[in-house]
Amino acid sequence: MTGIILAGGKSKRMGENKAFIDAEGALLFERVYRVCKEIFSEIIIVANDASPFERYEAILQKDIILNKGALGGLYTGLFHSASYHAFCTACDMPLVNPRVIKYMVEERDEYDVVIPKTHDGLHPLHAIYSKECLDPMRQLLDVDDLRIINFFHQVRVRYIEEIEIKEFDPYMRSFINVNTEEEMEAVRNILRKAE
After folding, report:
1. Integer Cα distance of 86 and 2 in angstroms
2. Nearest to residue 31, comparing CAs of 181, 174, 186, 185?
3. Which has the closest alpha carbon to 122: 159, 169, 154, 168?
């Protein structure tokens, strides 16, 4: 299976490229990369500025269609994936849990999307997608509808419920993403306690 890491965000709220912010001895991006590398045989990094990622063992891809946000990055990664299914995550989710991901991988066979569903809603940037999603995604991109979940009614979806996630990740930290300095400090505190 393929692991897709989206690293093309503009990081407006952080004021710097958050992929390369230090999080207790490892860059935000590296924490995500290491988990994906442990699980997946192929890693695709989608980033329009690929140069900072050239030192990693991965396939680097620029967006096929520019300025289409996370949906555009997801479409690009899935399009280039050698696997029928791919797990997609963002570079600013440093607490991704390999046990949660592996559980999702085990659930994928009959489905085109495997996605966590928690009290916060759906988590489309911590989800598995099949190649069957490419055409519905492209239809959204063509009309500039960039909400990832808006094609789900066209494919087979497996929702991973909160009770299932908590078996592996009791505090559901897998879905924490970093957009502000306050969120970054909260992640550092979690990592300090864990280590």
Report:
1. 5
2. 174
3. 159
Q: Is the pLDDT of residue 10 over 70?
A: no
Angle at 10 between CA 93 and CA 62, to 5 degrees: 90
Averaged over 43-64, what is the pLDDT?
95
- Rounded distance between C-alpha atoms, residue 113 and residue 117, angstroms: 12
User: Which amino acid makes up residue 119?
Assistant: H
Q: In whole angstroms, what is the distance from residue 87 CA to residue 101 CA?
A: 8
| Sign of the torsion angle spanned by Cα atoms 2, 122, 94, 72 | positive
Residue tagged 């299914």 (tokens): 85
CA angle at 31 for the pair 29 and 36, rounded to the nearest 5°: 95
User: What is the pTM for the complete model shown?
Assistant: 0.94
Q: What is the mean pLDDT of residues 16-30?
A: 86
The domains of the chain, with CATH numbers, are: 2-194 (3.90.550.10)
| Cα–Cα dist 51/103, whole Å | 33
Over 119-136, what HEC string results? Answer: CCEECCCEEEEEHHHHHH
Pairwise CA distance, residues 100 & 108, whole Å: 13
